[in-house]
Amino acid sequence: MEAQAQGLLETEPLQGRDEDAVASADFSTMLSEEEKEELKAELVQLEDEITTLRQVLSAKERHLVEIKQKLGMNLMNELKQNFSKSWHDMQTTPAYKKTHETLSHAGQKATAAFSNVGTAISKKFGDMRRR
């Protein structure tokens, strides 16, 4: 008998269609008047608690802003600090270091190549003037 009862219990979470069916079901006919009153009282209590929590959160956020203002912290300073920290963190990664090294080396080679081209062009112009 226990094996049959376990087979009736689903172990999988509700799927979208299951949630829709539960949401559209009318459970109010299955509840006694006493249960309905208890649930209504619980609902009112939860709504009151949520309102209180929102008020407390709002007060704490205002207090946070006041403290930051007293410390001279503002959004722009925080953004600058976050950006600086992120930039520093990125520069210390092995990938950045390797890329920086590679690009620096490529830049040196490009500079040398441009210098050689410039020298060759100058030499050509010098040869052309002499003729």
From TrEMBL:
Coiled-coil residues: 29-63
UniProt keywords, alphabetically: Coiled coil
Region (Disordered): 1-20
Domain of life: Eukaryota
Pfam families reported for this sequence: TPD52
GO BP terms, alphabetized: positive regulation of apoptotic signaling pathway
GO cellular component terms, A-Z: cytoplasm
Family listed: Belongs to the TPD52 family.
Listed name of the protein: TPD52 like 1
Provenance organism: Equus asinus
Gene that produces this protein: TPD52L1
